[in-house]
Design goal:
The chain is α+β, with helices and mostly antiparallel strands. It contains 6 helices and 7 strands; from the N terminus they run βββαααββαβαβα. The chain is globular.
């Protein structure tokens, strides 16, 4: 674990009181600033989404905490597939680390935590996508062992 200021990072599931911090992290980069809205009060769609995620047993919002401050987050979704002999997969999305902690190892520990949770839930693989405009993030994921085995496509609705 990364030690900073004499403390260790811990991980837990997000609670509703964390939502403002989570949305703030989601909006704290060039891409997020164009699609998120961290102004208060938060948009009701964030509240609705958080409630749905929290109630879904196949979704986890995981936060990294240091000295009682949230320094990172991600969403892990367990998806049951018929392919690969019916193996489940963990989908990792919305990985964010507070700007002042980027490059400190928080992201690596957070993704490792998600992989461990996916493995504990019987997943045979984990997958993620990263926007092509984020080359540093793509390098980071490759460094963790992820490979660009597929071309991801999206259709905005």
């Amino acid at each position: 674990m990364v030690k900073r200021y004499g403390s260790q990072i811990s991980f837990r599931d997000a609670v509703s009181e964390d939502l403002e911090s989570l949305v703030e992290m989601l909006s704290d980069d060039e891409l997020g600033a164009t699609r998120e809205n961290a102004s208060l009060p938060l948009d009701k769609n964030y509240l609705k989404a958080f409630e749905q995620i929290s109630q879904d047993l196949n979704n986890e919002l995981i936060v990294a905490v240091l000295d009682e401050v949230i320094v990172g987050m991600l969403q892990l979704t367990i998806i049951q597939y018929l392919t690969h002999l019916g193996t489940a997969r963990g989908l990792i999305e919305s990985v964010r680390v507070k700007s002042e902690f980027r490059g400190s190892g928080v992201g690596q520990q957070l993704v490792t935590e998600a992989i461990q949770r996916a493995r504990a839930r019987g997943c045979g693989m984990v997958q993620l996508t990263s926007d092509k405009t984020r080359p540093d993030a793509i390098r980071f994921y490759r460094k963790l062992g992820f490979v660009g085995s597929h071309e991801g496509l999206k259709l905005k609705l």
